[in-house]
Amino acid sequence: MLIEANAITRRYGQGDIAVTALDQVSFEIDAGEFVAIMGPSGSGKSTLMNLLGLLDRPTSGQLIFNGRDVGSLSHDQLAASRNRDIGFVFQGYNLLPRHSALENVEIPLIYSGVGRKHRLQRSRAALQAVGLSHRCDHGPTELSGGEQQRVAIARALVSNPALILADEPTGALDSRTGTEILDLFKRLHIAGRTVIMITHDENIARHAARIIKLKDGKVLSDTRAAPQCTDDAKPAPADKLSGAMPHALSKTQQ
């Protein structure tokens, strides 16, 4: 079990002005699942994303991540676990504009103290796995939106995290490029990765194998769906994702 949420509640403020963003939410997520958490604005999905990303702690209830009670961790322990265990992918890519694709992917490894030789090896392999080995030396302004998001995914993968947490990862992309990114997440899932995707769009959520719907801070439904995967564009086939970079991409080989 990677994540276990037991009646987690998150409130902001106190007394009469307190706002309950999450109310007694419970679920479990196994390692290797591809889960979409969806809901409209105000449903609590962003609050839940912050909890799952170890950016916040529940007001009450228990959230277990990778065998550890989040509520018992210090700020330093939360920061260390975020860097080690979670790869973030955001709608806005969040790439450093004056650095190359390769340098952007290296960043988590620098924070982890990985030596330069191994950093370069792992970062190049991560970019190769997402179909961008030919763009290593290009900066963000020289890359398309889809290419920038692939760099962000490579950066999320390079530390070999337990979880890939993606917040509206296709929100800034056209529909075709968005489908390419969703197919890449699907291939990561097939290769053994745990992927949690936050979205307000049901059409996007349907690409996942499981959908948890939130409404007014509560779990409205938790269903398993037949995941969609188109073949219009294939930036990296599953065999490359599981074989090209065993230490940073594939969980099935560990």
TrEMBL record:
Annotated keywords: ATP-binding, Nucleotide-binding, Transport
Region feature (Disordered): 223-254
InterPro entries: AAA+_ATPase, ABC_transporter-like_ATP-bd, ABC_transporter-like_CS, ABC_transpr_LolD-like, MacB-like_ATP-bd, P-loop_NTPase
GO MF term (any one): ATP binding
Classification via CDD domains: ABC_MJ0796_LolCDE_FtsE
Pfam families, alphabetized: ABC_tran
Residue stretches making up the ABC transporter domain: 3-241
Name of the protein this chain belongs to: ABC transporter ATP-binding protein
Species of the source: Seohaeicola saemankumensis
